[in-house]
Amino acid sequence: MIDSAEGVRSRIWSVIRKIPRGRVATYGQIAALAGIAGQPRRVGQALRSVPSGDSIPWQRVVSAGGVLGLGRYDPMAGWEQRVRLEQEGVRFGRRGRVSLTEFGWKGRNPPRRRASKKRAR
DNA sequence: ATGCTGACTATGT
DNA sequence: TACATAGCCAGCA
Question: CA at A38, C1' at C6: how many angstroms apart?
Answer without folding.
Answer: 14
